[in-house]
Amino acid sequence: MGSRQNPLTASAPPEVWLPQAPLIRVVTRIDFPVVVSIGKAEFIAPFQEALRSVYPVLRPEQSLGVVISSVPRLPPTQQTQTTWRFSQPDNSWRVALAPNFLAIETTAYQSKSDFVERAKLVIEALGEHVNPQVVDRIGLRFLDRVIGAPIANLSKYVRSEVVGILTSEVAPNVQHALSESVFNVPEEKAQLLARWGLLPPNATVDPAALDPIGEPSWILDLDMYSTGSNAFTPKNVVDAISGYADRIYAFFRWAVTEEFLKLYGGRL
């Protein structure tokens, strides 16, 4: 079974490498007050140069947003926003920079240390070339998806509190079952949103992060985020991401059994 310790307060266990891990996406996002100059190519050019050896592909994306006026009775207006999307040629690692956020995303996660080191490169470039001064929110999300035969025997791979109704007599009739909990993590001054459950074929709970597939799947979606604004420094942000990764991993290990780790190639 998973750990009996409280995963929201206990230290994270050592990482177990899963060669066939069902982890399909990891994303960190840093939100900050709007820096209008980010919309200008000449302003972000030094930021691009700092990343270009690792993220050589740049594709700007234009989108329309609604701006609410602070003046009474003035109607909302539409405004074009540029998001600069940097990526590796195979698209397995991506960076997005917009006037109010920075995001780093991968579908090829290897380890916490690797992810934090890659994030550090980008966040230090943000500090040097954009220097947003204030960070409104720091978030880190891990999304796992189980498919195939293990779904029929989830109680072997996931602890009973998480499997829930899928271990009951009505399980054969369940088409869609999703649970969601939000936990306070006082030591990190953060919250953890944990969502898990069974999805039918061609369904998703988040089209931006979870592509629909043609078969049933069971997801474990762990999203940890700060609950207040703080001064921006690259070290503070990187330290927060590192701490969140530990807490998310502790929760993951609490939720799954040793049989789950073995199923995906883990050596205990």
The gist of it:
The protein is of the alpha+beta class and about 270 residues long.
Walk me through the topology.
Blueprint: E1 23-31, H1 41-51, E2 57-67, E3 77-87, E4 93-98, E5 101-106, H2 112-129, E6 134-135, E7 137-147, H3 154-157, H4 160-163, E8 177-185, E9 190-199, E10 217-226, E11 230-231, H5 234-255, H6 258-263
Antiparallel strand pairs: 1-5, 1-7, 2-3, 3-4, 4-5, 6-11, 7-10, 8-9, 9-10
What does this protein look like?
With 268 residues, the protein is of the alpha+beta class. It has helices at residues 41-51, 112-129, 154-157, 160-163, 234-255, 258-263; strands at 23-31, 57-67, 77-87, 93-98, 101-106, 134-135, 137-147, 177-185, 190-199, 217-226, 230-231. A nine-stranded antiparallel sheet has the order 2-3-4-5-1-7-10-9-8, covered by helices on one side. Strands 6-11 form a two-stranded antiparallel ribbon. The mean pLDDT is 92.
Q: What is the helix content?
A: 10-25%
The secondary-structure class comes to alpha+beta
Query: What's the total count of β strands?
Result: 11
Radius of gyration, whole Å: 20 Å
**Overall 3D form:** globular
Poorly predicted residue ranges: none
Q: How many distinct helices?
A: 6
Could you describe the largest sheet, including whether it forms a barrel?
A: 9 strands, antiparallel
Look at the structure and give the mean pLDDT.
92
Strand content: 25-35%
Strand order of the largest sheet: 2-3-4-5-1-7-10-9-8
Number of spatially distinct domains: 1
Order of helices and strands: EHEEEEHEEHHEEEEHH
Q: Distance between termini?
A: 13 Å
